[in-house]
Amino acid sequence: MNAIIFGAPGSGKGTYASRLKSKLGVDVIAMGDIFRENLKEGTPLGKKVKGYVEKGLLVPDDIVIDVLKQHLNKVPKGKGFILDGYPRTIEQAETFEGIAKIDVILLQMVPDWIIIERLSSRRICNNCGAVYNLRFLKPKVDGICDKCGGSLYQRSDDTPEVIKRRLQVYQEQTSPLLQHYKEKKVPFIVSSIKGLDTPPETVVETMIKELKKLNLA
Ligand SMILES: [Zn+2]
Fold first, then answer.
1. Which of 62, 163, 171, 187 is deepest in the core (most CB within 10 A)?
2. Distance 124 CA to ligand 1 centre (A)
3. Has 135 been annotated as catalytic?
4. Is 165 part of the annotated catalytic residue set?
5. In what order do the strands lie in the sheet with 188-192?
6. Is the model's pTM score more than 0.90?
7. How far is the CA of 10 from the centre of ligand 1 (A)?
8. For residue 33, what pLDDT band results from cuts at 50, 70 and 90?
9. If you average pLDDT over every residue of the chain, what do you get?
10. 118 belongs to the catalytic site
């Protein structure tokens, strides 16, 4: 299964993708995480994308496509992938059509108020990258990662002003892309999240059922 997962920042798509990864054995290629790791480590790539990522803006195409190709080359043959954070433009979508076939679009529909609530309480491990939420997915010890004991931090772009800008960028960028894939007749699996307390397991189980109907799981 080659999938693209769409969802606003804070829609939970990262969580869903990583659960699908462990349940279905697909690779997840999350562009945002790749850029953030490089930023954190101060690699040459990190230095190139710093300004864009911090402002919630799009990283230029030529940089993104190089990074994406490097990661796609690491996906073993026969193993599928979930792309997260790519494509962001029609041009990128068209470029990608020359690289790999997309079997399904996984679309998360989450109201803005839920996103703002979730993002402002999100915390991330500075050692292993595990994601917590002070409301729904609390670490056992305050400020400490359950998995590795690392300390938790709040991302600099998880502030209300930047969140609003990111939501706006997301809407503007995504609607034409969804239209594009509809026209290409790529099947959609839409998860509508209506409450703050919808457990990720429920969302992921429903997605897998739908994937089975499409013979993709
Ligand atoms: Zn950790």
1. 163
2. 8
3. no
4. no
5. 27-30, 81-84, 2-6, 104-109, 188-192
6. no
7. 19
8. confident
9. 91
10. no
